[in-house]
Amino acid sequence: MVEDSIDRAPHSNRDTITAPALQQFRIPMGLRDGWREMNPTQKEYTFLDFQAQSRLDRIYATNGVIKNATNWEIQETLIPTDHKMISVQVIDRKSPYIGKGRWTIPPYILEDRNLQLEIQIMGQELERKLLTGQRTEQSNPQTLFQTFKEQIRIAAKERTKNKIPKITQQIESLEAKIKQVQQDPNYAEDQDAQSLSREIHERIKFLTKEKAKSNSDKIAARYRIEGEMNSKYWSQINKEKRPRDIIFALKNPEDMNREMNRSDKMAKIARDFYENLQLDGLNINGEEREATMTNLLNNIQAKPTVQQTESLRAGIQRTEVDEIITKVENGKATGLDGIPYELWKMLNQQYKNAKKSKKNAFDVVGTLTKVYNDIEKHGVDPKTNFSEGWICPIYKKKDNTEITNYRPITLLNSDYKILTKCIATRLLTIAPTIIHPNQAGFVPGRSIADQVRLLKLIINNAEVTEENGVIIALDQEKAYDRFRHDYLWRVLGAFRIPEELVQTIRNLYENAKSVVIINGVKSEPFDITRGVRQGDAMSCPLSIMAIKPLVEALRVSNLKGIEIPGVIEKIITTLFADDTTVYLSEEDKLEDLTRILDQWCLAAGSKFNREKTEIIPIGTSEFRTNLIQSRKIGQQQDRIPDSIHIAKDGEAIRSLGAWIGNGIDQHAPWTATLDKIAKALARRDDAIPHNRPRYAGRHRKIPDEDDIGLHLGRKTTSD
């Protein structure tokens, strides 16, 4: 038996008896399908016969084992058998060195009144310098604000050291005293010293119990206030408690058979990989690229309205900064400066309260606005490290010893992110005006659900109307990391984005540097010369604008696409950010599509992964069968390359986050999702004392597994 329909070809309805029974056994044991974890969308089978193929052979393991496992493979065996062999390599890895990482201001220390007063004094002194000082290269709003941040870090570190609860200080003092008493050479014969030691020991025991009781009372009080409610606290205590993510080893790109397990060496491997990725594909014909880029950008006709243009041209306003600081979420990871959003939110609230009372207070919003206006006018001062970030590699799937299988998320300083959120908000406000409706990613008012519904509608409509064609799911390789910066600036110009705003964005990226931190060990910095940073708010609008020339090239091309009666415009492509789906009729040629894709990749610096491209034939059953057998969209056309997978009837492929295909089981492979939900619900039940919720909890409808299962079965397109 198999747990998911993806593990059987052709797909069949989900087993409602044995599969649930297996899950009831393995979920409490914490067992997971290791191969599927590493290959969430891949289709391979271990048992093949004339009628069906299935992945019957699986290795289940706990999370701890899977984390130390690599090289999950399905192979033929030398021994004659009707099953393939599944194998995995489990490595006994020694824990690598864990460095200090970067220091972050703990949220609790911001409640310290002495620290708050100290920051207020420093902030008001900063305001005085900004008002009275002349701008120089050494002293300007940016450098003064950088000094202010460094002073805050020093003060916060000092207060953190001294901010020890009184009872803890008493215990530490008594422990030091008892050690001193017991170190006396005559202690063994001194009855008075021994009696004093016992008294101190009893006092320590009493204080320790009091400390534990105090902590318990605080926890109980907070649970009483925030427990069993839609709060961050309730979510946090119900989350699975995991050890920190540790990277145990990375393969050396120069010798893939050799693994590095020293944290500093792994940080260097990652740093060099991300730096070298920026150099890939630069050795090309400059004149050809310039001509191609010009032709692509000439297709862009959309532009912001006059009112929108004036709004984009204006400098950063105080109201924008205030809105971002007010709305931004707490608890976000900090950049290298270690300053959280909570500091700026606290200072802003103190200023507003003081203003109501007609008192003086540090105006953090006004100060940040002056700093941002200075950046707009003079560019980023390189001495401030304003655009610095640290890359946190987040494991995605497949071999966890290869750095290419990690997603590089960049953590940026909170003051930088406030500015880029202001810019991103402006760009996203005009997105509905300049971005075609076939792009749903990040555009306000649009949803990926609309794109998925269209996908399914086209598949069903093509069979009913006998309109033959194909759906092609494209895969961009390292999409966010590949956009060339000169192309991005040209795209912004083609959209008629005001030069003032374009120059600000350029300044932020042209002075950007990043380091990689692995296991708390920091690499040397490197310059960001290409791509948009995942973790930067600007990456969302910039990426969808960068893809727009490709969309326009497809729309104005001779490709027929899919035509639906009543719809004026041909349906040629749908996108969610960089996730691209293309629709071709049986009259269209794949080589024409390839030519357009290659032209855009040449201009943008991007790359499509041909090996991950998948095709779904649509239309009549006869057409679909012939296409699979001949690997040709039309009989007079070129053969589809063998590296491109063609989905058979009953086989689901992943596109725009949904499982789609001809004649597929709509209860697509949701096992991994249901596993997570089941574990979360189990933790929720454990968190409620005696499984009897309080009054507040009882009067809320909390879904159970049946509710979730029905929901997923009904909504298999966008989750």
From TrEMBL:
Domain Reverse transcriptase, residue spans: 375-664
Keyword Repeat in record: no
UniProt biased composition (Basic residues): 691-701
Coiled-coil boundaries: 157-184
Region (Disordered) residue spans: 690-719
Residues spanning the signal sequence: none
Keyword Cell wall biogenesis/degradation assigned: no
Keyword entries, A-Z: Coiled coil
PANTHER family documented for this protein: REVERSE TRANSCRIPTASES
Protein name per Swiss-Prot or TrEMBL: Reverse transcriptase domain-containing protein
Organism: Meripilus lineatus
